[in-house]
Amino acid sequence: MKHFTSILQLGDLSEALAEAAAVKADPFADQQLGRNKTVLLVFFNNSLRTRLSTQKAALNLGMNPIVLDVNQGAWKLETGRGVVMDGDKSEHLLEAIPVMGSYCDMIGVRSFARFESKEDDYNEVILNQFIQYSGKPVFSMEAATRHPLQTFADIITIEEHKTKPRPKVVMTWAPHPKALPQAVPNSFIEGMSMTDYDFVIANPEGYDLAPEFVGNARVTHDQDEALAGADFVYAKNWASYEQYGQVLSRDRSWTVTKEKMALTDNAFFLHCLPVRRNMIVSDDVIESPRSLVIPEAANRVVSAQTVMKRLLERL
Ligand code: CP
């Protein structure tokens, strides 16, 4: 694994989960591995969990983390090739990336879908330029189409709490006032394809995800049918893929409430956070003892540390 942009690059999931469990049990065991190594964390978008958990993971590995918020204090970056730079952007990404690469041993990048061009987003133009021009291992801290560190933490959390060998896991769309990227649900589907869980996607008409991600996964437009007998409910909003980047519905009958959870087999509730309460999920569900959102977020340190450890081992 030279770069990490998809959960599929973990390879054998059982091995990755065993490695993650070892990291969690003894977080400082690999302090020497990262000694005198620097990781640069580049954020084009806001973050709480990724920013903190990845820095913590780097420190656990003995690394020196540097954080760059591109939109706060750095020169405004042009990303389009061939652009006459006579506007407000002072530096081109094509110089900035190799410069960043010269200051570190590996780079984490957060760069969301911009919803300006489905083609650009789904070709991961920003992330791929870091891979092409930085000269360093690159890992995704959520890119336009995937959020693999989140998915790895999600699966670690499910594995820690499942009571059946093959739990029913439902990923359900839920309403949100703004257009959100498809990275988390796309990535979660990829992660589920690595398991033998009974996996179902529930979303309203018009919200089917990209066929290359959905693959053979079961999709229903009936949320209640999906939730019946579920062991885990993973709620998430995403903007339409078909009408790319559009918000087609804010239908709160899709909000995950106590009544919806009553359809399940006493399911655990998961969400990657941040979450809009009483849009995505009701207060009583997220505050219930079956809500795993805090341990799920805590496992972001474990997923980041396991991935960075693997990248360090290849340096
Ligand atoms: N789940 C997640 O990635 O959270 P942040 O956007 O706060 O990093």
Structure commentary:
With 315 residues, this protein is α/β, with parallel strands linked by helices. It folds into two domains: 7-146 and 300-312, Aspartate/ornithine carbamoyltransferase (Rossmann fold, 3-Layer(aba) Sandwich); 150-296, Aspartate/ornithine carbamoyltransferase (Rossmann fold), CATH 3.40.50. It is 36% helix and 15% strand. It is built from twelve helices and eleven strands. The protein has a five-stranded parallel β-sheet with strand order 9-8-7-10-11. A four-stranded parallel β-sheet has the order 2-1-5-6, sandwiched between helices. Strand 8 (198-202), helix 8 and strand 9 (218-220) form a beta-alpha-beta unit. The longest helix is centred in the C-terminal third of the chain and has 21 residues, at 293-313. The chain is globular and about 55 Å long. 45% of the residues are buried. The mean pLDDT is 98. Bound molecules: phosphoric acid mono(formamide)ester. Phosphoric acid mono(formamide)ester binds next to helix 2. Residues 47-50, 142, 150, 272-274 line the site of phosphoric acid mono(formamide)ester.
pLDDT < 50 stretches: none
Q: What small-molecule ligands were found?
A: phosphoric acid mono(formamide)ester
Provide the β-strand percentage band: 5-15%
Helix and strand sequence? HEHEEEHEHHEHEHEHEHEHEHH
Task: Please state the average pLDDT score.
Answer: 98
- Rounded to the nearest angstrom, the radius of gyration is 19 Å
Main beta sheet strand tally, sense and closure: 5 strands, parallel
Going by CATH, what is the homologous superfamily of the largest domain? Aspartate/ornithine carbamoyltransferase
Q: Number of DSSP helices?
A: 12
CATH class annotation of the largest domain: Alpha Beta
Which percent bin holds the helix content?
25-40%
Structural class: alpha/beta
Number of strands: 11
Number of domains: 2
Give the overall form.
globular
Please give the order of strands in the largest beta sheet: 9-8-7-10-11
| CATH fold group of the largest domain | Rossmann fold
Tell me which CATH architecture of the largest domain applies here.
3-Layer(aba) Sandwich
Distance between the termini: 11 Å
